[in-house]
């Protein structure tokens, strides 16, 4: 019998009927590409060690996913890019000086405990990369807070350690920060280009902004979370940022230092762990901004972005529930009972 | 006066968020895991729990400072507090059965188990140990109840969401609940150092 020609085949399928090129893996790989500028800047400033940490965390994330799915006889989904993205984000959130086992443990916690145990991609309640980092920060507080001075030479292996700008701001105040960086313009310049101590992928504000704007342009993320997150942080930093007087803080320093931009554009906007209702997303962003500044200004840690996003992740299901749309014409259950009587 | 208010505010925030009994001291877990499967029971339990907590904090403060301290029998505090709590739980049990029989049957054994809950005993003990005033004891009780309610509601919303997911068979149910609690506790460590009392 002659095989049926493709063009005469009648396709019968369930909705949705509109076909699009978009898919999970396409989104994941695009987000990974948008992180490329920041990653390159990180490697440029922190040398081969940064590349080593990144490669290790990506490979171990992929391996954890593969081994887990193989062991449980599940469909192998390593190619969809979500484990790659998790590994990349985790690596970007680590200091370049960590020993080799740190990225491996972090990737395991991120991929297996935070994502796969909850039922795989789409069901995780928390952002995997952030849980990985929080776990490492609590378990290895010393190793996770050794920040090296950026080196321009790619081959230089020994690096001096120093404090992050936010660490200086917390411990010794604005005056010391100005002393270290010279003047305000020089401070901004360092923060924008990424020539400062910090996690290897979070330092370059300009590269992160380029990536974030690219995602906004491609409509992979919407403005709701990043804008409300950054705006809330800026307002709080402006009002309460300076010690002793109101409305004297410097919002720009707070916005472009620490993990603020990385968090606001790439981590808080994770589809799975943020609310899916638009109004809820704004509330989510405001909450993230508020908690970040609360921890930065009053809390025990110099940087609060990670914890703020994780805490808001806990609240995302409740936010979704309370913002769900009203069904038109539906009668409340108590009322329905009453009318039946 | 404003200092007093600040202190009260700090007590409530500290007891509910920063030193949340469930997430930082891992107390009161039996009720926490028992009723957090459904949002309805979680909300019902939160309200009952917070009211029992506040009344028991108030009553035990009165008995502790007016009876145990003058008579110098403070070593009996645990037994006396347990007695007060058990009585209160019996009262709330009777009230619930009359007022909301539906919820009464849904909460089931966990309603009676409030009397053996660690948080509800911990609050009067902490109040006595820290020598809080009457109003401060009430604030601490209220904050702890609020923190427990918050934990229950977060947990119920996450567990209801997880109903549909493909959790590996050995981890379904209680093991996963423990994992979630651990991860939430990890997130809540961000609050540490916010207020030092």
List keywords for this structure.
heterodimer, A: 341 residues, mainly alpha, two-stranded antiparallel ribbon, 16 helices, 1% strand, B: 197 residues
* Overall form of chain B: globular
Helical element count of chain B?
A: 10
Distance between the termini of chain B: 18 Å
Number of domains of chain B: 1
Strand content of chain A: under 5%
SSE run of chain B: HHHHHHHHHH
Question: What would you note in describing this structure?
Answer:
- Chain A has helices at 24-34, 36-46, 48-71, 82-92, 101-116, 128-139, 165-172, 174-181, 184-193, 205-217, 224-240, 251-256, 260-267, 278-298, 305-322, 333-340; strands at 147-148, 161-162.
- By secondary structure, chain A is mostly helical.
- Chain A has one domain (24-317).
- Chain B is mainly alpha-helical and 197 residues long.
- Chain B has one domain.
- Chain B is built from 10 helices and no strands.
- The longest helix of chain B is centred in the N-terminal third of the chain and has 33 residues, at 39-71.
- Chain B is globular and about 60 Å long.
- Chains A and B meet through helix 5, helix 6, helix 14 and helix 15 of A and helix 9 and helix 10 of B.
Question: What's the SSE blueprint?
Answer:
The complex is a heterodimer of chains A (341) and B (197).
Chain A: H1 24-34, H2 36-46, H3 48-71, H4 82-92, H5 101-116, H6 128-139, E1 147-148, E2 161-162, H7 165-172, H8 174-181, H9 184-193, H10 205-217, H11 224-240, H12 251-256, H13 260-267, H14 278-298, H15 305-322, H16 333-340
Antiparallel strand pairs in A: 1-2
Chain B: H1 2-18, H2 21-24, H3 29-35, H4 39-71, H5 77-99, H6 101-107, H7 109-113, H8 118-130, H9 134-162, H10 174-188
Q: What's the short story on this structure?
A:
The complex is a heterodimer of chains A (341) and B (197). By secondary structure, chain A is an all-alpha fold. Chain A has helices at 24-34, 36-46, 48-71, 82-92, 101-116, 128-139, 165-172, 174-181, 184-193, 205-217, 224-240, 251-256, 260-267, 278-298, 305-322, 333-340, and strands at residues 147-148, 161-162.
């Amino acid at each position: 019998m002659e095989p049926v020609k493709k063009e005469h085949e009648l396709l019968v399928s369930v909705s949705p009927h509109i076909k699009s090129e978009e898919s999970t893996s396409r989104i994941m790989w695009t987000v990974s590409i948008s992180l490329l500028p920041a990653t390159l800047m990180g490697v440029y400033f922190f040398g081969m060690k940064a590349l080593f940490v990144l490669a290790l965390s990506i490979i171990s994330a992929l391996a954890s996913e593969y081994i887990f799915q193989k062991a449980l006889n599940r469909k192998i989904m390593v190619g969809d890019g979500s484990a790659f993205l998790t590994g990349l984000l985790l690596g970007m959130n680590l200091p370049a000086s960590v020993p080799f086992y740190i990225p491996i443990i972090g990737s395991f916690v991120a991929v297996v405990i935070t994502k796969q145990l909850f039922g795989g991609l789409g069901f995780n309640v928390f952002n995997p990369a952030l849980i990985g980092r929080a776990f490492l920060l609590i378990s290895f507080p010393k190793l996770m807070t050794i920040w090296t001075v950026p080196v321009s030479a790619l081959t230089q292996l020994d690096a001096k350690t120093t404090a992050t700008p936010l660490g200086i701001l917390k411990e010794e105040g604005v005056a010391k920060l100005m002393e270290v960086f010279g003047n305000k313009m020089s401070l901004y310049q360092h923060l924008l280009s990424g020539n400062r101590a910090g996690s290897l992928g979070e330092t370059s504000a300009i590269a992160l902004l380029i990536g974030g704007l690219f995602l906004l342009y491609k409509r992979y993320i919407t403005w709701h979370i990043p804008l409300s997150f950054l705006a809330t942080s800026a307002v709080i930093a402006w009002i309460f940022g300076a010690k002793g007087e109101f409305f004297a803080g410097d919002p720009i320093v707070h916005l472009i230092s620490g993990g603020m931009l990385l968090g606001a554009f790439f981590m808080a906007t994770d589809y799975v762990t943020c609310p899916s209702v638009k109004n809820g997303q704004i509330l989510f962003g405001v909450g993230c901004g508020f908690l970040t500044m609360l921890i930065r200004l009053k809390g025990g840690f110099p940087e609060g972005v990670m914890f703020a996003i994780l805490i808001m992740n806990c609240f995302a299901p409740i936010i979704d529930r309370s913002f769900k749309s009203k069904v038109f014409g539906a009668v409340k259950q108590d009322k329905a009972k009453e009318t039946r009587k | 006066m404003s200092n007093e208010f600040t202190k009260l505010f700090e007590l409530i925030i500290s007891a509910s968020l920063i030193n949340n009994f469930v997430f930082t001291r891992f107390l009161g877990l039996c009720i926490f895991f028992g009723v957090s499967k459904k949002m309805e029971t979680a909300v019902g339990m939160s309200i009952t729990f917070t009211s029992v907590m506040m009344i028991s904090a108030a009553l035990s403060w009165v008995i502790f400072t007016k009876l145990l301290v003058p008579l110098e029998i403070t070593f009996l505090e645990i037994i006396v507090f347990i007695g007060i709590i058990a009585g209160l739980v019996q009262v709330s049990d009777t009230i619930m059965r009359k007022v909301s029989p539906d919820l009464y049957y849904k909460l089931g054994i966990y309603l009676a188990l409030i009397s053996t809950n660690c948080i509800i005993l911990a609050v009067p003990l902490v109040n006595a140990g820290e020598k809080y005033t009457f109003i401060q004891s009430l604030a601490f009780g209220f904050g702890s109840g609020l923190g427990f309610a918050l934990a229950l509601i977060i947990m119920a919303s996450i567990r209801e969401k997880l109903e549909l997911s493909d959790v590996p068979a050995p981890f379904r149910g209680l093991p996963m609940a423990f994992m979630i609690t651990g991860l939430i506790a990890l997130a809540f460590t961000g609050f540490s150092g916010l207020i030092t009392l």
